[in-house]
Each structure stands twice: as C-alpha cells, then as structure tokens.
Amino acid sequence: MAVVGDLALMGTKIKLIGKLEKRVFGVPLSTSPRFSFSQTRNLDVSKSRTAVRAVLQVEKIQSSGELKEGSLGFDVVSERELKENGFLGLRKTKLVCTIGPACSSIDELEKLAIAGMNVARLNMCHNSREWHQDVIRKIKKLNQEKGYCVSVMIDTEGNQIQVDLGSSSSVKAEEDSIWYFTTEKFEGSRPFTIQANYEGFSEGVNSGDDIVIDGGMATFEVIEKVGNGLRCKCTDPGLLLPRAKLSFWRDGKLLGRDYDLPTLSTKDWSDIVFGISENIDFIAVSFVKDAEAIMHLRDYLTTTSSKAIKVLAKIESLESLRRLEGIVEASDGIMIARGDLGVEIPLEQIPSVQKDITYVCRQLNKPVIVASQLLESMVEYPTPTRAEVADVSEAVRQYADALMLSGESAIGSYGMKALSVLRTTSTRMEQSCREENRQTLLHQRKLGASLPDQIAEQICNCAVEMADNLGVDAIFVYTRHGKMASLLSRNRPNPPIFAFTNDNSTQMALNLQWGVTPLLTDLSDDMEGNVKKTVELIKAKGMIKKDDAILVVSDIIPISTAQTIFQSIQVMTIT
C-alpha cells in the first residue's frame, strides 16, 4: 500500500497529496496507482498559540526482527485470544466481576482473569477492610507475576435509607402479617420489627402509602403512624434481606423524598482514602444526586492521589436521571445500576432508560457499564434463562462498554459459568452487529472546545471511517493519557484498537473502554520508531502476519517541542 499525504496546520497552509494502491473496502487492488489527488488551500491559524501537525500516510512496513520478544506489555489473555481468534475475533465488550466470598481466593481470581474479567469490583458495603486489602493485593500480584491486566474498582456504600433486621440472615414476610418499622436502636432482633437507619424516614408518609422493599421483594401498606415509626401490613409476601433498601409509593407513583443526605458518607470517605493507599483504578460512587459531588471527589483525588484514579457515577435514582447529562460530563464513566434504579422508576421504563443513558454516554465519550441482575438466576442455577441471555445481547447491541456480574460472581455457585455466558454472548452479538454495520447509526456530538481537541476528535472520526472502509485488520493508537484511544472507541470501529501507552494508570483506565486492548510499553518522541518497534515485537510474538493492514493514530506530544502536538494517521501493510 502506498498512499502518501501531508496535512499541516503549521502557519497558513494545508496540503494533501495522495494515491492509493493496495486495498479499498478490504478488496486487493493492483500495484499500479488507481487514483491520485492533490489539493492546496490556505487556512489562517495565526491567532492560535498551539501549532498542530497532522499526517496522513499509507505505506508498507517490513519487520527486521532486530528487537527482542517480551519487551511489549501484552496481557496473557489478550495475547492468547489474538493468536487463537485473530484480530476480528477479539471480544470488544469489557467484563466486570464483583468479588465476594465465592471467588476471593487467588486461584478463583486467576480463573476469572483467564475467563475474561477486565475489572474486579469490590463492594464496600460488604466484608472487612482487611478482606478488601487482601483481594486487591492478590489481583495486583496476579498482574505483576502472571502477566494479567485486571483493573480494580471500589464501589462506595453511599448514603441511603436501609433496613436492619437485627441479624445477618434473611426473614420471610408472610401475607397480611403486621410489622413495625422504627428508628429505635436496639441490640439483636425483635419479632416483626424492622429498624430504619434514618430518623426522618417516616416524614410525609400517610396511611395507605406503600413501602416497597428492594424494588419489589416484598411490599407493605402503611396502616398508621406511631410516633416516628410506621405500623404496616404485608400485602406482597417475600424475603427481607439484611441492609435491604426501601421506597415509598402513593397511588402507583414513587413518593419523592429529599432526605438531605450527602452523596458520600463518612464511611465512604474512609473507604476512598483506603482505595488511594492501595492504588486502585476506579471509584464507583453510589446514589449520585448531582455533578457537584463527582467534581468534589475528582478535585480531592487530584490533590491526594499520585495516580489518575477514574471516578464513575452510578445512576440509580430519579435525581440522577433528572441531572443525567451534567453527571455524565463531570464523571469519567457511568454505571447503570438497574437494581436500585428499578426501585425508583416503574420496571417497564428500565429498558428505555438504559438505552438512553448508554446513548448519552457515547455522545459524551464516557464509558458505560450495564449492571445488576444480568444473569441473576445463575446465582443458584448453572444455566441462565433465555430472557437473561436476550437482556445481555441487547446491552451489547446498544454498544455498552462493559457488562457487570454482581451476586452471580460474588456469592453464586456458578460464577465462572456466568462469566462464560457473558463472554460468548457478547462475542456473538458483536459479530452480528458488525455484519449489520450498525456503528454508523450514531450521530456524533462535537466535543472539542479548543482547536487541538477538535482536530484530535476529527482525526479519530476519520480514522475509524477509514479503518472500516479499507477493511484494515487493527487500529494502533500511541497515547500517553488515553484521550485518542477513547475517541476511537467512541466510534465503535470494526477492527480492534490496540492502545500503546507508557503510563500504567492509562493502561488500567482503558480496560473499561469498548474494543480497546491497552498495552504498556516505552514510548519516545520518535513516532516512526515507536511504530516500527511495536509492530516488530507483535510480529515476533506471532500475532500479526504478512499482508495484515494496520491503521496507526498518535497523540504523542514531543517533549522537545513544547508548543506542538503531533497527531497522525498512517495505514501500513505488513510484508
């Protein structure tokens, strides 16, 4: 392939010259030039203080085999999948597993990593600080000693109204049984008595209102108010679980309550400090009400953490839905917590709300995780329901960045099988979406404010269109902070994205981006040298072969040229 061009904003001129010889829409062409074009036009950028250079180049690259194998940070799972399935066989949807008693040993953690776990989630509602520390260190040990690449996320407990049964076991509420909800504190348990953890929980509640437990696990009708407590009758029997959540409904509508609780509790801040000390990669914030809480946490992390910890906002309340776009813009990513969200909105609205949130996240270039009850039946049974498989497929079809297991992996008996179902279902639906060419349906919102950001965004949009139209086998992006890798991912290209970075925080953050395989390697200001080195190393590992076509994008900023950002697109064939 021999297309050569140059697009430069280095003062007043843009020049583009090129000819294409090798491949169009994946179809080989003859070695003689089929077309050529040239265009020169003037563009006044004299008022811009930042010079931007962009290069479009298509050329052949030949491996000399001079560099030694093993200098490239390929994780062992991606390397195996690439060798076995080829570029287009790589799974693009990322998988998050909640770690609990059923999978906390180092052997079980390694099995999850081998099976495709990209991110390990620790729910700070459960287990001790020592338990969490032990799990985090086991995961980091596996990464360092066995060559895995699993990121660590902590999920804050959040401020919420919960019930306490006085014991660690569940209690069955029978139909027409009478129960007392109280804020009184007492040790142990009392028959038919439930403690609420907030003094004003009964304010504004009237006789005839309904108390719904955990989104429908059980329902009670308020008979009368007794002081600060409520005397209730069970109308829908079910299991009451420890730390269950409750909501109030009147005439079939959620009773809006403003408890004036901060998003992050004292315990949450303590858990965050712990997470910082353990060098975690993500913090998922529960029960986010507005963007201010996310911005406050990000500011705190900037001043206290030596690494770039990403902050995810969990969308699980009416308040967060009303302020969705501001929360998405303020955060580094979103988790759609469908379980708790289903407590606050009618169940029939969950599918459309999930679709809308996923779309907004893609528009604003933020990764989105679809969570809660994906394969809930597999907590107890070895095979999922067909409806659950359809649910997983729809999330993949909506181009969610990641899918998450909760109780299925944390406490279930078939966590490995559940992860396998996510992996195989995701892979099959991704193949179907490629065949439909559905990624072209997204109308992209322009994000960049500055000229360099706008150019980077347009380069990535064009790069993905080129990659799909030319039928290239893979996209390589060289990035220090992951920005262009995320912009490429936003476009959901057919070929996989390999992101080469010299920053460990960037590598771990990109673990949550759709279609991105992050690789830790040394990068220099010499882009040609970076490309040649990494291509040779991958070829030496047997993961790339003759006539493979690679599209290369870069946002490396040369240290020697402080005012210049080097951005480029190159297309190469391996010889």
TrEMBL record:
Top enzyme class: transferase
PANTHER family hit by this protein: PYRUVATE KINASE
EC number per UniProt: 2.7.1.40
UniProt catalytic activity: pyruvate + ATP = phosphoenolpyruvate + ADP + H(+)
N-terminal signal peptide: none
UniProt keyword Metal-binding present: yes
Cofactors required: Mg(2+); K(+)
Annotated Gene Ontology cellular component terms: chloroplast stroma
Pfam families assigned: PK, PK_C
Pathway entry: Carbohydrate degradation; glycolysis; pyruvate from D-glyceraldehyde 3-phosphate: step 5/5
Coiled coil feature spans: none
Boundaries of every Pyruvate kinase C-terminal domain copy: 457-555
Protein name: Pyruvate kinase
Segments forming domain Pyruvate kinase barrel: 91-418
KW Calcium (keyword) present: no
Keywords noted in UniProt: ATP-binding, Glycolysis, Kinase, Magnesium, Metal-binding, Nucleotide-binding, Pyruvate, Transferase
Entry GO MF terms: ATP binding; kinase activity; magnesium ion binding; potassium ion binding; pyruvate kinase activity
Family, as annotated: Belongs to the pyruvate kinase family.
